[in-house]
Amino acid sequence: MRVPRGRPAGARLARLLTEVLAPGVLVTALPLVAAVRVSRTRTDLLLWGGTALLFCAVVPVGVILHGVRRGRLTDRHVGDHRQRARPLSIGLASVAVGLLLLAALRAPAELFAVIVVIFVVGAACTLVNHWWKLSIHAAVAGATVAVLVLLFGPVAQLGWPLVAAVGWSRVRLRDHTWPQVLAGVALGTPPAAAVFLALT
């Protein structure tokens, strides 16, 4: 949804938050942050980080952008939940391939756990979106902050207001209701923390 010029500042801020903290942005940044943290050499960073980036971000986001260009998807946020099954399923398959490669490359547990979190949260969102338009923005934002807290400690708690801001932006733009946003946070945050802790 585009916000036409002349709209109130609140709508413009909501659009900015929706774009800057979109799932595609977060699933690109999170594996890279984890790869930087665990890599001892540039080679490790390029190998592990590059693999994670390609299969968790480039391929899934590319599928969505291709669908938008071909007219199969309404927009890059896939606002119509009936259109979400195919791109989400392809994205999950790509993440699964990335997991297999990272296992073969003996990636550190923390990075591997981050990718498993992305897969689990993505799978949960895919399942729910068959019946209900849950907020994937909120789910991914909550999962991202949960993992960052476990990676970096209490300082990452500063990310929670951004999760709230993402939720507000989705409601402000009328792309979701508050129940859909809160359900997204609930679906993304506890499983992300549980999976990461279990694997590390």
TrEMBL record:
Record-given protein name: Phosphatase PAP2 family protein
Keywords in alphabetical order: Membrane, Transmembrane, Transmembrane helix
Record carries keyword Electron transport: no
Top-level taxon: Bacteria
Pfam name, any one: PAP2
Transmembrane domains' residue ranges: 20-39, 45-68, 88-105, 111-132, 139-160, 180-199
Domain Phosphatidic acid phosphatase type 2/haloperoxidase: 135-194
